[in-house]
Batch of 2 targets.
Target 1
Amino acid sequence: MSQPAKPVRLALLGCGTVGSEVVRLLNAQAEDLTARIGAPLEVVGIAVRRLGRERGDLPVDPALFTTDALGLVKRDDVDVVVEVVGGIEPARGWLVEALRAGKSVITANKALLAEDGAALHDAAAEGNADLYYEASVAGAIPLLRPLRESLHGDRVTRVTGIVNGTTNFILSSMDSSGAGFSEALDEATELGYAEADPTADVEGFDAAAKAAILASLAFHSRVTAADVFREGMTGVTAGDMASAKEMGCTIKLLCIAERGPDSSGQESVSVRVHPAMIPRSHPLAGVGDAFNAVFVEAEAAGQLMFYGRGAGGTPTASAVLGDIVAAARNRLSGTRAPSESNYAHLPVRPIGEALTRYHISLDVAERPGVLASVAGVFAQHEVSIATVRQSGRAEDAKLVIVTHGAPDANLAATVEDLSRLDIVRSIASVLRVEGGA
């Protein structure tokens, strides 16, 4: 009769919203997890900031809690380290220590991966250890593993996604109700979708970190958050939403990563996060509430879409558990997860070289020659106009212009010169247009 397998021993760093859900799921699904892995999972320690904090009915022995995270990571009886604390330091030091010691690491830390994922991947290679981070982007949606493994034999050309639930809720609310940004943000805060300080979400920092991770995997090149062009969505108005509706569009905060030639013809990648108009026929246009969705385009596989809840304790914990199962199985079989694939070393081209389209709303003087003067500025910068719509009279005169595709630098220079025309009272809004609208 065979002996039962020894437990795979886990150290959990962090026991907040996500960490506590990980503990609950480990307890509730213990029997199934043991059957899937071939050995039981055992939590041998949980690092927290404060020992005295009330943790409700969490099914765990209080003696497992410690404030010495590094000491826990270094223990000989730890096989897998699960980090759900967040932030750059001290998390980076803990995880590098674990990986160099050959311990598997599961992390949901998008900020660390986007700023210095290289340190973690290098430590994993040094320690011959697994590094999993499915929970760092899009919560429970199985997205990173398909990019990392399933599409490894294909050539991904573009990734377009809604990867922040807070901003998607706000923009969806603005679209459906006609509310302004402030009112929609207040609603998101009241419902618990927005943090007390929503800056990381509404200014695009969260989405930019995720965009860097997605681009790194999709294009086999190291991309950091600093490489990502970022523009928040606080400037999107109810008027912008109304204008988008008139065009058969909606507005989403998108992360866009694409592969292609730069201005000199060299293969490169462009990675950006910004609000954009997309046609209502686009698959991402119907993604509402706080849901996430990512649209992947590859040469052989074609178009793929991944959709689901991208945040919250339980969805994120689900992704963490999936990584725990994978890492535990690898330890039992003596195998490793796929290592980092960064062979392409593609440079990141600046936003100015990205091909995009603009929707520009101008408050203009009502007098002869206005349209000709405005069109002359576009021609000067070699930007072709797709449509022009004029509305209002006197002080309410407006021009709404949608361009054809052009380098972003040309479009930005066009807007700058338009602002200097004496016939342009103000530039009411500028939004990029994606998806063939």
Target 2
Amino acid sequence: MENEALLEKFSTLKKEKNYRELSVYLDDQLITDIAELIHDDPENAGAIINNLSITRAAAAFRILDFPLQEDVIRALAPAKIAELMNELPADDRTSFLEELPSEAVKELIKLLDPEERRITLSLLGYPENSVGRIMTPDYIAVREEWTVKEVLDYIREHGKDSETIDVIYVIDEKGHLLDDFRIREFLLVATDTVVHTLMDDRFVSLHANDDQEEAIQVFRMENRVALPVVDDQGILLGIVTIDDMLWIANEEHTEDIQKIGGTEALDEPYLDMPLLKLVKKRVGWLVVLFIGEMLTATAMGFFEDEIAKAVVLALFVPLIISSGGNSGSQASTLIIQAMALGEITINDWWRVMRREIVSGLMLGSVLGCIGFIRILLWNSLFHTYGEHTVLIGTTVGFSLVGVVLWGTLSGSMLPIILKKAGADPATSSAPFVATLVDVTGLLIYFTVAYTLMRGILL
């Protein structure tokens, strides 16, 4: 309702060409409401940004999705684009530019002030998905020989240009990071205290070439609002703040969910992605899974004689393979999530395997007992399975134990193996694990059936 009122007021003032009142009105709104207004009325994205103060325009622009950011840039005059690009924080500007084609990046970089251009080119020089791409050079750094009074005076003078003043960094004359402090540590001591007397040399830093996913884990473990970024020599290059990490974590989570669902990660919002590109993202895995499922028919063909002798075995094929696929999908999802949260590492593979062997046997036993009881009850009511009902029930029960055990082991170990090989564990998606277990589940089922029924039904 509020967004509708905002849109209506904006449309009225724009139609009346009352741009002075429009600017005042827009500047009075929350940044999130401005972003929502642009989302609801993308055709007027340029007009909305144009009528905001440059500070608030940059604040709104930085939280827009990339397609909307493109719409804004296309609608603005070159002078306004230059003003907006120079106002954006370096890390947000870099995140936007790295999504653009190289020719567009060259043109936009030309619009930057010399210092902002230098910073942007420096950040773009780091590997994609590295911490260096998202760090900002706007931070407060002080010297160890300063007093607390000098530190506070420096913060008052330069703090407005910093991304955050919650954390203050101590460097030497060559720029090496020596320590970091929360600002309250300076506020709670006498003003004549010298900085080096407060230092304990216990600090955590990131390397500019560290992977962004690894940085997320460090933030989670250290519970910090910002972390310093250093080079190989320990020189302080910039900082990464928690808001950037939350944004990256959300993107990584979305990407993992899409991969777990059996598709390539989408690099655009679903409704903004061209249909053919969306199909291309999905068809690859579907073809792989389809070819994999064709092996199921091959496996059943291998046991054609056994099925011909005991047709009743074919009745339980969907039950067997779906149980194995479900258990494998459960295990892979749990392990992928645990790895993403840093709860387990590659070195924990043996602990994971032991747990999954026990849980697989327990889960398989539960399903096996239910399957055995169901077969007995169904036969007592409808006389479906004949005189060998107990044997059939036993075969299905033991097969379920084996298939579910194999499913949990496959689902839990595959993400770890992929991680060890340097691949993304999320590619061991639930559909992929289910397809793998379908084929091997049939082999387990018919092997158990042949072992137990040989000389009786087979």
